[in-house]
Amino acid sequence: MTPDLHTARLTLRGPRDADEADIVAAINDLEVSRWLTVVPYPYTPEDAQWFIGECLSGRERSWAITRTDEDRVLGMIGGRDSFGYWLRREEWGNGILSEAAPAVVAHIFEQDTPGQIRSEYFLGNARSAAVLYRLGFKDTDQREVTCRATGELVRSQQVALSRADWRPPSPAAS
């Protein structure tokens, strides 16, 4: 089970069946899904049901990002094999991921004891890159991947954050 995590403004919780409409509305936006490797476009209720089921079964580990005073899903963060995230387009630039990501990374290093966390971003996605680099991720390699939403071959920057390099942000920096 995905434990709830809390930050100054956010509650991060496991996705649930009632989130289906929020998830579909948010990610069925090509400006969001075009930056993700495995998310189809259009994104259907069946896609959301499958994803939620994977999370509820424990095969996937992701947190729904919500404001503490509002249960509407703003985005998702987490992953089993690779750290990733997305946000509703209208939430871009509001510091949501800069607040949510350190909480999730801290939880992963505290609970799962991995030696490192891997992630990637498509070249050209400066916002996503900035979130990862602020956390301390370092470049490892590049590869070409097919974006499922667009069917295009894109260049992806592989990054990793080692336990030794992880430095939780100070409360003043949050």
UniProtKB/TrEMBL annotation:
The keyword Transferase applies. It comes from the Bacteria. Residues 9-138 form the N-acetyltransferase domain. It holds the Pfam family Acetyltransf_3. Keywords: Transferase. One of its GO terms (molecular function) is acyltransferase activity, transferring groups other than amino-acyl groups. PANTHER family: GNAT FAMILY, PUTATIVE (AFU_ORTHOLOGUE AFUA_3G00765)-RELATED-RELATED (PTHR43792). This is N-acetyltransferase. It comes from Salibaculum griseiflavum.
